[in-house]
Amino acid sequence: MNRRQWLAIIGISFLALLAGVFSSPWISKTGLVSEPAVKAFFANEWLSPDGKVLDTKEWEGKVLVVNFWGSWCPPCVEEMPELEKLQWEFSSQNVLFVGIAIDSPSNVREFLKKTQVSYPIAMGGMNGSQMYKALGNTQSALPFTVLLSPSGKVLNSKLGRISEDELRKSIKSAL
User: Fold this and answer.
1) Angle of helix 74-90 relative to helix 164-174, nearest 10 degrees?
2) Considering the domain boundaries, does residue 73 fall inside one?
3) Who has the most CB within 10 Å: 13, 57, 146, 175?
4) Collapsing DSSP states into helix, strand and coil, what is residue 161?
5) Lowest-pLDDT range, 19-23, 57-61, 136-140, 167-171?
6) pLDDT value at position 21?
7) 39 in helix, strand or coil?
8) Residue 153 belongs to what domain range?
9) pLDDT value of position 122
10) Is residue 21, in this structure, part of any structural domain at all?
């Protein structure tokens, strides 16, 4: 294959990926994600970018917004300020945001020096992709956001960049 054909294949593949990610609506996943998948999420030993174990007991009993992201992912980076804003907006209402980085700890530490977030950031590691697949991300793309009820049920999930307004509306309906 010549260079031109490779560029055409890469371009078409990229456009197909974008079309799939950005046409994905904020959809209800109630009943589609197994209870063991959610239990596995809370039972997993999540580490901070500095290697400290995060206490998932603090995450239980809250409306939990779990955002799988990567520092190399432009839509992930674009939505982080909005996630941070919503974390502050709902912090007194039993809502917690958690970012699960599908990235290397060194990349995440460097990224967080420039982009401050107040919510916990956990390293996805080898389990990260298995975890987001179990929670409904069948396309294995990022960003992927999951909304869990205080009882640990998946209320909604979104593949692709989530808007501040749609997430706010979904959180309010979960409260």
Assistant:
1) 40
2) yes
3) 146
4) coil
5) 19-23
6) 47
7) helix
8) 26-174
9) 96
10) no
